[in-house]
Amino acid sequence: MKRLRLLLGTEVPVACILAFALFPWLWMMLSSFRPDEDLTRSPVRIIPGALTLVHHIELLQRTSFLDNLRDSFVVATGAVMLGLLLALPAAYAFSRFRFPGRRALRVQFLVVNMFPVVLLVLPLFIVMRTLGLLDTYLALIMGHATFTLPFAIWLMTSYIDGIPGDLDEAAMIDGATRMQVLRMVILPLVVPGLVAVGIYLFIASWNEYLFALMLAGRNVRTVTVALQMFIGENEIHWGLLTAGGTVVALPATVLFLLVQRRLVGGLTGGAVKG
Amino acid sequence: MKVEGRALPWLLLAPALAATVLLVLAPVMETLWLSLHDVILYRPRSRPFVGLANYLALLDDPAFWESLGNSVIWVIAAVSLQFLLGLGAALLLNRQFAWRGIARALVIVPWALPSVIIGLVWTWMLDFNLGILNQVGVRLGLLDAPVAWLARPDTAMAAVILAVVWQGFPFFTVTLLAGLQGIPREHYEAAAIDGAGRFASFRHVTLPGLAPVIATALLLRMIWVANSLDLILVMTGGGPGTATQTLPLYAFLRAWSGANYGYGSALAVVLTLMLLSVVVTYAVRSARERSA
Amino acid sequence: MKRRTLLAGATVLAATPLARPHAQKPVTIRWWYHFDDPKMSPAGLVEQFEKQNPGIKVQAENIPWGGGADYDTRLYTSIIAGIAPDAAMVKFNNLPRLMEMDALAPLDKQIDAWPGRSDISEDLWKLHRAPDGKRYYLPVQFVVLYLYARQDWFAQKNLKLPATFADFEGAAQALTGGERWGFGLRGGAGGHDHWCSFVLGGGARLEKGGLVSPEALAANRWFIGLYTQKHLFPPSAPNDGFQQVIGNMKAGRTAMTIHHIGSANEMTAALGDAITAVPVPRGPQGRGWTTFGDGSNAILAQGSNQEAAWKWISFLSTGEANVAFNKLSGQVTVTTSGAQHWAFQPQRFMDATTASLPIAATLPPTPQTADFTRTVWPQTTQKALLGQITPDDMMRVFEKHFFG
Fold first, then answer.
1. Where do the coiled-coil regions begin and end (chain B) (predicted)?
2. Which of A7, A266, B274, C14 has the most crowded CB, counting CB atoms within 10 A?
3. Pairing mode of beta strands C137-144, C181-184
4. Which domain CATH number covers B136?
5. Chain C residues with CB-CB distance to B under 8 A?
6. Do residues C222 and C368 share a domain?
C-alpha cells in the first residue's frame, strides 16, 4: 500500500516530468544516429530505418569538437570558481551587515544584469582589448563570472539569510572572527546553496554564446561557437549538430549527478539549535 | 574593533564591486552615453549629440509599443509556467525514492543545452511537414491536420514560450530544491503534531520557508527572461511579421542589422529602466514586510 | 597548475607573431572566412601558398556565419576597435557600410597589374564594381539562384518545365493537392531571393517610385496571391528558412523551389534523377531577375601587410587554387579556366547556373540593403502573407525603406 502510494504519488509524476524534460533531447540523440536521408523523410520515421555512427565519427575526426569541449570546460570551471569566490563574501556582507547604501548597492548589482548584453558587447570588446585579454580563457572567465555575479550574489544572499544569525553570534562569543565565522560556520551550512549557484554558474558559462563569439574565437573556442559552425549559410549539418548537441548536455548533467547529494541536509534541525 | 566592523562589509564586497564596475558598469555607462547620440555603426567619425531625440522618437514608434506588449506576454507566461513546473518538480524530487539521484540529474538536461540547439530542435519538432509533434498529434487525433505552429501569429508566441519553459524550468527546480533543504525538519514535525495534512503543511511550512528563495528566483528569472532573445531569434526571428518580436530583440535588430546603434541603445536603456522599476518596487515591498 | 591553465590562452596569444608586427620575422596575415561545411579546412591551400611565398604566413580563422549577423557583428566590432583582420571574405550587401567606414583598401592597381585578371569574365568584374567606380572586392566564388523542379511529377502531368510566370503558376496549380504544394517559398529571413525573382522580374524596379509603380504593385499582388488566395505554397511558408525549403523538396512535399548549386548534391542524394533545375521563370514582359550570390575577398584598410594580403587573396582567385577553394566552399569557381573542367555537381545544375547568368543581378548596394534583407523584407512580407497588411502596403513599406 505504501509502495503503491509512493509509485502513484511520486514516481509516476516524476516520470512524467522527466519524459517532458528528456523527450526533445532523446529525439535529438536518436536523430544523430540516423542516416542523412532519414531526416527528410515524410511522414517522419519514428523508429530509424538504420543506425549509423557516421556523424559521431565525423564530429570527432573532422571537426575540432573535442578541443572545443575542453575549452568550454576550462572556461566554465574557471567561471564557477571565480564567481563563487566573488559572490560568497559579497553575499555574506549583504546578509549579515547593515551599512549605509546596502540596499542601493544590492539593486545596483541587478541593474547591471538588466541591460541587454547585445548592446554591451561592443564596449566590453574594447575593454578586453585594452586589457590585452582578447581570445584568452581569462577574458571569457571574467566575462562570464562578472555577468552572472548579480544572480550569484542574490541567490547566495537568500540562502545565507536562511541560516539563523544566532549561529554567527554564538561563534563570535566563543572568540571567532567574522572571517572565521564565514569559513567555519556559514560555509558548511550553505553547501546546498553553493551547489545550486555553482550549477547555475557552470551552465550559464557553458551555454553562453555572444561573449564566446566576440571575445574569443581562435585560440579559445567554446562548444557554443563550434556548434554554430555547423549552421552554414546554405546548409545545416544536422547530423553533426545533433551529435554535438547530444554530447553538450552531458557534462553539466553528470556534474549535477555528482554534486546533487550535497543538496541534502546541509541545514538540519540539529544544526539550527546549535 | 568597531572600525574594522564598519570596513569589513566593504572589504567583502570590494572584489565583486571592482569586477562589476570595470566589466559591466563602464560598458553600461558608455551605452547610456551613446543613446544620447546619433550613432550609425558605419559612420564611426560622425556621432552628433542629439540629447533625448532617440527617446522621443521611440514614443512615436509603433514597433516599440508592439514589442513592449509582446515582451509583457513573453515574460509573464514564461516565468510563471517555468516557476509552477519547477516548483512541482522540486517538491517531487525532494521526496525519498530509489532513483531520486538520477532523476534529479536528468531533469536539468534541458537547462544544460545551448539556446541555439534548443531553438533548432524545437523548430524541427514543431515543423509543419517533418515535425514529430504534428505527426503524433494527427495520428492520435489531437489535431485534424498539421499546424504550421511557427508561421501563424496566433500560435507562434505559444510555441516559443513552450520552448523557453522547457529550457528554464530546471533552474527553478534546482534553486528551490536547494531552498527546501533550508527548512528545519522540526517545523514539519511540529505541524504534523498539530494534525496538519500534507496540503496544510505545504501552505504553512514549506511555502513560508521557501518564500525568500522563491522571491529571489522569480525576480532573477524575470530579468533573465525579459532580456533573453536567442531562442526567439533562432525559432522565428521575431516573426511571423512581428508577432514574437520582444523589446530586446527589437533593440538588437535596430542596433546591429539596422546599424542604428544610438536608437538600439535607447531601447535597451528603456527596457532597463522598466525592469528597474519592478525591482525597486520589489525591494521596497520586501523591506516593508521585513520591518512590519 | 590551475593558474597555468588559466593563463595558457594568454601565453599563446602573446607568442603569436601578430602581437609583434614590427619583428623582422615572416609577415603573418590574418584572414577570416566562412564555409558551409565545418569539415572543410583551407589548410591545404594555406600550405601550398606558404610554400610559394616563403616570407608570408597565413592565419585562417573560421568565423561563424550566424545568418550573416554573427559574421558582420564580429567584422564591424573588430574594425571599430582597430584590430580588423588583414583580409576577409565579404558580400555585396556589406559593401556600402564598409565603404562608409573607410574600412576597405581599393584594389584597382593590383587588379590591373594581375595576370589572373583575364581569367575572370568581364560580367563578373562588372558586377563587382563599387558604386564609386572603384574595386574593393576580388571575386572568389559565386552562385546563381535557379529553380529546382521535380521533373518526374512534371512528366506525370504532361507539364513542361516553366519558362514564364504563366507556366509557373499553371504548373504549381496542377501539382498542388493533398499534402503537396507547387512551390516552396522561403518566407523567413533570406527569402527576398525568391520574392525578387517574381516581383523585380515581374516589373518592379529598385529606383525611386519603382516599387510602387502599377506594374510593381500588380506583380506583387499576383505573387502574394499565390499564397493567400490560391494556396500554392505550404502553410508554413511565412516562417520557412532554407533548411525547411530544401527539406520539403527532399521530402517530396513541394514540386518546385528556388535555391542554387550549393544544395545540388544533397538534392540528388535524396531524389536522384527526379530533380532537375532550370533558370527562374521570366515575367510577362520577358524580363527576368535572379539573385547573383556573390562571394569575394577584401583587404581591410587598417592592416599594415596589404601587399602580402593581396598575394593571398589573388592566389585564392587564380585557376586551380580557386577550383580547390570552391570545392571547399561548395560554390562555383569564378575562373573561366576552372569552369571548363568542373565536376563537383551533376552537369544539369551547372547548366542551369550558366543559363541563369544573363538575368543574374544583385540588390543595389546601399546602406539600407542589409537591413532590408535581414529584417524589413521578412517582417513586412510575412505580414502580407498573413493578411495583416495588403500587398500594396507591403510595397509602400519597401519604397519608404529604400527611398524615404
1. none
2. A266
3. unpaired
4. 1.10.3720.10
5. 69, 72-73, 76, 80, 96-98, 100-101, 179, 187-189, 234-240, 244, 247-248, 251, 253, 367, 370-371, 374-375, 378-380, 382-383, 385-386, 388
6. yes
CA A93, CA B11: separation in Å to the nearest integer? 9
| Per-residue pLDDT band at B43 (split at 50, 70, 90) | confident
Contact residues, chain B, for A6 at CB < 8 Å: 95, 97
Residue B17 lies in a domain: no
CB C97 within 8 A of CB C367: yes
Q: How confident is the model at residue A274 (pLDDT cuts 50, 70, 90)?
A: very low
Angstrom distances, CA of residue C146 to CA of C29, C71, C96, C357: 37, 26, 27, 10
Whether residue B38 lies inside any domain: the answer is no
B85–A17 CB contact, under 8 Å:
yes
**Of the partner residues C253, C370, C385, the one whose CB lies closest to the CB of residue B129:** C253
CB atoms C235 and B44 under 8 Å: no
Enumerate the domain spans of chain A: 1-52, 55-273
Please tell me the total count of domains within chain C: 2
Query: Least CA distance to A238: which residue of chain C?
Result: C243
Provide the domain limits for residue B223: 48-291
Contact partners of B by the rule of 3+ C-beta pairs under 8 A? A, C
Give the confidence band of C10 by pLDDT, cuts at 50, 70, 90: very low
Confidence label for B280 from pLDDT (cuts 50, 70 and 90) = confident
- CA terminus-to-terminus distance, chain B: 31
ipTM: 0.90
pLDDT at C20: 44
Q: Which helix (H) or strand (E) holds A228?
A: helix A223-228
How are beta strands C254-259 and C137-144 bridged, if at all?
unpaired
Give C404's pLDDT tier (boundaries 50, 70, 90). Answer: confident
Angle between helices A137-161 and B2-20 (to 10 degrees): 140
- What digits encode the pLDDT tens for the residues B225-270? 999 999 999 999 998 999 999 999 999 999 988 999 999 999 999 9
Closest partner CB to A252 (pick from B108, B132, B261): B108
Is residue B275 in a domain? yes
Classify residue C355: in a domain, yes or no: no
